[in-house]
Each structure stands twice: as structure tokens, then as C-alpha cells.
Amino acid sequence: MDFEKLLKLAGGDDDEPRRMPAMPGLWVWGLIVAVLIAAYCAMNSFYTVPLGSQALLFRFGSYLGTTDQGLHFKAPWTEVLRFDVQEIRRFEFGEMTEVAGRRYVQDESEQKMVTADSKILLISWVAQWRISDPYQYFVTNNINNDNDFRLISGLAEADFRKEVASMKYEDILTTGKVTLSANSKARILGTFDQLGVGISIVDVLISEVKVPPTVQSSYNDVETAKQAKASAINEAEAYANKTIEEAKGIAQVAVNNAEAYKVNKVADATAMSTRLKSLNEMYVSNPELVRTNLWYENMQDIMERLNIIFLDGTNSNIFLGDVPISVVGSQ
Question: What is the CB-side half-sphere exposure of residue 69 using CA atoms within 13 A?
Fold first, then answer.
């Protein structure tokens, strides 16, 4: 099949060959290129920064500035690097998280630390951190690989060890964990701010503090002895408190009895003094009567204490007033 037959099949005139359409002009191609460039610029002139992030702007490798979250305009040839400044990251020491909820000891040498009293403790801890200054983090220090992170975590570990070395063994094991956490956080923050690494420490968490296995049994013996000592002290204090309270009670009873005795004696002496004074006044006016009354009173007192026996030849008892009188008959 030749070219003429093709023209006929296409509906062309048998006598006059069909003409090919003319190619578009240069202005059409220019318009197409302009539209494509405009579309590219429109798509690359706006960018968004997510919530809780910041973006660094670069033009041909030169830093232009930092923008916060939201929609922004830029030149199409400007490069944008976004950094999440709220994401919490972790430096782990002594034990590493392999799977969520499961842990394994990474290196016991990281756990061994020397206290102020030259004793060894095994401490596992975590430093939680976030990016605080993307410019310092990426531009100044160019932290973007494992070696850089090891360097930063090494600084944090050195400061933590310094803080452990300033505290005593017993304090860290018992009540000093909160103090150790707070002080080490402040120390690490000061180092990072001084060096300008663009990282902020959110918290320092101590996951475990224990003594080395080689001295665990000795430590347990010491703790047992301390508990026994504390128990003995508590028992002694309880006994002492009980004895002291009992002694105070006995002393108070004695004091009360003495006060009562004193009051009675004073009352008796007062009554006797009053009676003697009254007798003296009566004696001045009627001495015979006073002597007679005193004689009867004394005789009555004497008779009450006598056991008088009359012998009349019978074996019977008689009474003289209230005084029993034994009468014994003669044989």
C-alpha cells in the first residue's frame, strides 16, 4: 500500500494530495514552558511547618532563617528542613530498650559508678531530651549521625558520674535518688547550654540502683544487722517509755499522798491549836472546870485501853461502861 492509497482511505481527494497540518509556532511553545514554570514555582513557593516543629531555610547552602509552625512563602529554590522540637528522645545508660516492655543490660561498665565514699554502685538511668534550637543542633554542631549522638550522650554520662561522685553510697541507695536526678539534670543542662548543642534535657530518670553481685551477700548481711539494730533500739525505747511512764505514775501517787498527808497534818495541827487556844481562854476564866474536864477526858482515854480484871470468887465477865471487865473467881 503506497502513500496515495493511504490518502484515499483517509478521505482525501483522488486528484489532489492531502496536506499535513502546520507545526505550532514558537510562541505556543514559549507559552507552554511559561505555564510549566509558573506551576512549578506555585507548587514550590509555599510550605507548611507542622505543629510543634520549626524549619530551617537554606538557599544554595546558605542559612536564611528559622520559621515556626504554620503556612509560609518562600522562593522556589529555597530548601526547607523541618525539625520536631517537641518530640522526646532518650539517651539510655546501663540498659537499653530492645523491645517495648523488655530490657537487657547493654554494658555493666556503664552501670558501675563510684560514690563520694569510694564505694561502687550499679546505676541504670535515662536522660530524656528534645531539640531546643534547630540552628545550633543542625548548623552549628551538625548532629546527624551515631557518632555525634555518642559524643553528646558521653557528655551527659560524664556529668551524671560527677554528680554520683559527690553523693554518699547510703544516700543514693535510700533517699537520695530524687536529689541525684534533679542535680544531674541541672548539671547536664548547664553543660549543654555552655557548649550550645541545641539540646534541652527534659528529665533524668533513674531506673535501677543496686550493689555489685560480688558484694550483694555482704550488703544483705549489713542491712539485716541494721534492721536488727533498729528493732532493738525501738524495743528499748518502747520499754524505756513504758518504764518512765510507770515511774511518773508512781511518783505522782507518792506526791499526791504526801500532799494529802500534809493537808491532814496541817488540819490536825490547826484544830489542836484552836482547841488549846480555846482551853487557855476558858482556863483563865474557870481553871477548875478546865482541869476537871481534862482529867475526865484523859481517864476516858486511859480506860478505853485498859483490860481490868476483878477477882470475886466467880468466873464471869462484867462491863464497866464500854470497858470489858473480866471477873475471875478464887479457887
Answer: 7
